[in-house]
Amino acid sequence: HCDLKPSNVFLDDEMTAHLGDFGIARFLPVETSFIDVMGTIGYVAPEYGMGSEVSSYGDVYSFGILLLEMFTGLRPNNGMFKDDLNLPNLVKSALPARAEQILDVAFFQEIEEEETLYKKASSTCTQSSIILECLISICRIGVACSAELPDERMDINDVESRLRSIKMKLLKTPVYEEKQTINNLSFKDLYDATNGFSSANLIGAGNFGSVYNGTLFDGTTIAVKVFNLIRPGGARSFKSECKAAINIRHRNIVRVFTAVSGVDYQGARFKAVVYKFMPNGSLEEWLHGKDDTHWRLLNFDFLIKKKLDIAIDVARALKYLHCDCQPRIAHCNLKPSNVLLDDEMIGHVGDFSMARFLPDTDEQTRFIGKLNVRNFVKMALSQRVEEILNDFNLQEIEEDRTMCMHASSSSSTSTHVSIILECVNSICEIGVACSAERPRERMKLNDVESRLRLIRKKILETSVCPEDKKKKISMPLGRPLSARA
């Protein structure tokens, strides 16, 4: 190329980079060894100024300078660079101890803002160090590419693989995990990922389509919802999912990676939405699935807490949709099968095929929005409280009471049981209040979430016996055969 610099790198509407301006490019190998004018000062390889022949190593040098400029914000032809001081030498001398002094300050501002937004204070220190480590690794690649001697520069194949590895490491940090997107997928990509939409990959079916799990070429596990366009409402459901996905960004809502619209191998219309895969399936499976043993692996305290955590997750998602999302959204189809669980059993609301945008008036927002809350709580109140506290739950309390007879007095155990029953009763009272017949009489989502949090705190402050606090509860995770998306 011989003239690689920022002004010759162009970005399309998806911010994908394209290299342009081949005005002084040369075919390799070059017939003449002497070059009188080549490239732009600051970006051109130093050997070209000494009459060396053109080679691919010259472009590698320019790429190294480009990379350093992107991550430091410093131009290589800045007036500060004189004599033996240039951009690569400056960066090399600063790594790693003084990296923060030469890196673009915008990176650290973004990290701080995102960590505040997602409130990940407990992992702030760890993820900041990982991000800084990634930035240092990028700068080292830039320095290695812009070495003075051509044969000391990195091979471009190694450059690409190293940068990809750094990107994968960066995307695993909480700050950037929320921003991951997968673009430019085709029917063929989804066909290959799901083994031809094989029945073995089928993990769910609904009124408007079927859901398949799959693995993309880069190893990313996905869930693909293929819409049934023959069925009335199928195309409209696809449109609703896409419109909602554009406006939604929340940790308790299933993330949509991308949408695909085109034709299949038979020339028929094809529409699909690609989601983040949820390895622990749906709440429906855990509540009423064929295998009713997974909850039994948890002790009673943990069972109550985990169900409460999922309820809080759903309340958070609804609060975001109704109050914080722009425009505000009514889900309109909230039920256990549309509450999906990730590998940490965190609840995510999914399936926006029936979602509707809410008008700006508060009256309509309250009426439509709270119908979702009513649907949610009614799924848990279809039985009496005595049945919610079923024989298994009561048996667990009795077993824990027996195990702890020598560790605590019967009065303290009895107190614990009464506290647990009181908490469950409070949860059911919230459910009843949310599912009142008249919309105006239903609880507000802000109050729902705060009340559930208080109940959760009360449960955490008590235990069946002192030894419970030392127990490590293991949960069955990653059930691929029954997972839902």
TrEMBL record:
Q: How does it sit in the membrane?
A: Single-pass membrane protein
The entry's localization annotation reads:
Cell membrane
Highest taxon in the source lineage: Eukaryota
What positions does the entry give for ATP binding? 225
**Native organism taxonomy:** Eukaryota, Viridiplantae, Streptophyta, Embryophyta, Tracheophyta
Catalytic class of the enzyme = transferase
Q: Which PANTHER family match?
A: LEUCINE-RICH REPEAT RECEPTOR PROTEIN KINASE EMS1 (PTHR48055), PROTEIN KINASE DOMAIN-CONTAINING PROTEIN (PTHR48055:SF55)
Supply the name of the protein. non-specific serine/threonine protein kinase
What are the alphabetically sorted keywords of the record?
ATP-binding, Cell membrane, Glycoprotein, Kinase, Leucine-rich repeat, Membrane, Nucleotide-binding, Phosphoprotein, Receptor, Repeat, Serine/threonine-protein kinase, Signal, Transferase, Transmembrane, Transmembrane helix
